Each structure stands twice: as C-alpha cells, then as structure tokens.
Amino acid sequence: MQKYGGTSVGDSERIAAVADHVARTVKSGKQVVVVVSAMGKMTDDLVHLADQVSKTQTPREMDMLLSAGERISMSLLCMALADLGVQAISFTGSQAGIITDTSHMKAKILDIRADRLWKAIEEGKVPVVAGFQGVSTSKDVTTLGRGGSDTTAVALAAALGASVCEIYTDVSGVFTADPRVVSTARKLRAISFEEMLELASSGGRVLALRSVEFARNFNVPLHVRSSFTWEPGTWVKEEDPTMEQAVVSAISHETQEVKITITKVPDKPGVAAQIFRSIADRGINVDMIVQNTSIDGFTDISFTAPRQDVESALEVTEKVARDIGAEAVYGDQEIGRVSLVGAGMKSHPGVTAKVFETLATEGINIEMISTSAIRISCVVRESQLESAVLALHSAFGL
Ligand code: ASP
Ligand code: MG
After folding, report:
1. Ligand 2 midpoint to CA 9 (Å)
2. What is the DSSP string of 96-122?
3. What is the average pLDDT score of the chain?
4. For 69-102, how does the pLDDT look when each residue is reduced to its tens digit (9 = 90+)?
5. How does pLDDT run across 332-352, given as a tens digit for each residue?
6. Is the confidence at residue 244, as pLDDT, over 80?
7. Longest Cα pair distance anywhere in the chain, in angstroms?
8. Neighbours of ion ligand 2 (CB under 5 A)
9. Alpha-carbon gap, residue 350 to 8, rounded angstroms
10. For residue 309, which phi and psi values (nearest 5 degrees)?
11. Could you tell me the domains of the chain?
C-alpha cells in the first residue's frame, strides 16, 4: 500500500514523479495499491469556495464537493502510469467498497468490500483509490474528516492484508521534535504504535490520529517517508526489542488550545459533573483538567479545550458558572503545550522531576500538567514554548 499526500501529488511534475515511483515498485515485482489525497491545497480551496457561495452548507453537499478533489488526483495518476506502461485503474471510495456510517464530514468506516480491488489486482492492474471518502449505508458519498486519506490507506492495507502501508509525505519521517523549532532534531528509525498515538494526539502533525488507531488495532506496519527524496523514513509498528530503548523518544508541541479557568467553584459533589456535562453536550473535547485543593469550601478549576471552540466553550462555561454560583470565568489563549513521549518512561522513575528541573532552570513556569504511562505534558506560556521544547530536547539527549 502506498499513500501519497497532497504535496506529493501537488502539480503535474509531482504526479509524474509519483507515477515513476509506483512503476518502479511494480517492476520490482511487488503488488501495489495506491491511495491518493487531493492535489496540494485543493480541499482547502473547495472549502473556501463553498464559503463564498453559500451559508447553507449541508454536510451532504459538502461531502459531494470535497470528495471531488481526490477524483482529480487519482485519474491523473492513472493516466501518468499508462504512459509508463503500467496498467492502473482508479476507484472512488464508493467503488473501492469503503462503506461508512452516515455522519457526513466525519464518517467512520464500517466495512470494506474490496472485491473490485481484488479483481483489478488479479488482472495485474494497479488500483488507485481516492482517499478520504466512502459511501454511507444510505448510499450517499461521505468523507472521513480532514486528513482522512491516511485512514483510507491504513484501512485498505488491513482489509487487503498488505505487508506495509507506506505513507509518502513532504517530510522524511517522524522526528525527535519539530525540525523547524529544533534544528538538531533527528529522524527516528522506528517508533511504536502507542508512542505514535501519543504524538499524534499531542500536536504531532505527521499522521492523522485515527489512522494510527487503525494501524494499531489491525497491526498494520506504517512506513512514513518522503516522496521528494524517497529515502527510508520512520517505521511505526508494534513495540519490539530492536527499537531504541530511549526513555523519551520524541517531544511534540502545540498552540491550538485555550485554557479556561472558573474561580471560586463551590466544592461539593456533582459540581464538576455539571460543568463538564454542559461542555460535553456542546460537543467540545476537554483535555487537561486541574482542580485546586479547596479553601473554605471553594476551589478553582481549569481545563483546556481546542482554540477553535473558544467562543462556545466560554459561553457555556459562563452559563454553568452562574448556575452553580462560581465567581468568574477566564479564557486564556496565550498558552502552549509541550509533551514528551517515550515507552521507556514506564520503567524509569524521575522523568517528571527532570522535566520540571529543566523548565525551572529556563525560568519557565508550568501551569498545568497531565501524564499517561508514556507521556508527560506541560502547559506553559506560548511565548516560552519554543524555549521549553529546545531545553527539553537537549536535557533528554535527543
Ligand atoms: N484531501 C483531504 C484533506 O485535505 C484528505 C487528506 O489530505 O488526507 O483533508
Ligand atoms: Mg492532506
């Protein structure tokens, strides 16, 4: 399975380069199935076009629109392959048998009926499948949510029993930190599914989170690599003894969250439930939560939520704060989050202490903390985030 992202098929030259690589792979004797994203920023452009045309963007019509992008790249790639003497045949998500539920723009794959793909493979053809789309149980075209082509590729790889799912992109793999921030960041040779899940959910932008969940659940090895240099990239697979036994494997960071604080919350059973129920009912995903020890029966509660939801998050929090008799609500968008991920953390005490010491030495105040078995995340001032990433990257010898 080879998946090519938007930049990899961004213009006619890129499509020719991809066709060339697919042709070489076929000529080396391998059976290949290809999944493509829309060219370059085409999906963004289509969203923008819809914004200009209408305020009534029903999800069904948006899916019909957005799924068009991948049709362009898949058909062009097949034409380019034909010039190289490779028989290829394109399939929309629906034709490829990708059956989803009916939730437009964030559909979940329910089943894959890959008989047309198998037939093509048996006929010696290379199936080229449109990423990011499927057909719902009520026969409408659906899309899987932005970045969904990764998920298409991994799901098809699992369904077809592919030996590897190669994700071709514009970076050469998964790095120990974002190379734009840390110039000495190094490409990882391999990383476990669990680590990749933590990275993808804490700001790592290389793979869509759902595709990694799929890969883990069906044990599909991923190889994230560059379609510009074609060099070997990073393997994402089950943890095994050949992997680097680093305590910390990588550091990610993100600035897409807001911190919301409610002060003087009456400290009694049911209050937190009431707050977070109201927020959940708005469809807002809360991440970190911190509650202070109460003084005189009152406490402060802070939590983070996606910055894109800041308005509705503040509105609903202010309402619930009034209902429960809390004092005030503050929103703070000037925060950033740094996360350290490493499977070795499970067996190494002292990682947290070293993180705190490192940040203290830099004069960086930690505002919130959350951990999992293999991740430590700290919220700090956004203005200090890059210094935090740099300091931690060097402190942990990455
Ligand atoms: N073209 C879609 C998007 O831009 C899907 C993808 O690229 O994975 O979100
Ligand atoms: Mg994309």
Report:
1. 10
2. TTEEE-S-TTS--EEEE-THHHHHHHH
3. 95
4. 999 999 999 999 999 999 999 999 999 999 999 9
5. 999 999 999 999 898 888 999
6. no
7. 79
8. 5-6, 37
9. 42
10. -100, 10
11. 2-170 (3.40.1160.10), 250-254+335-395 (3.30.70.260), 261-331 (3.30.2130.10)
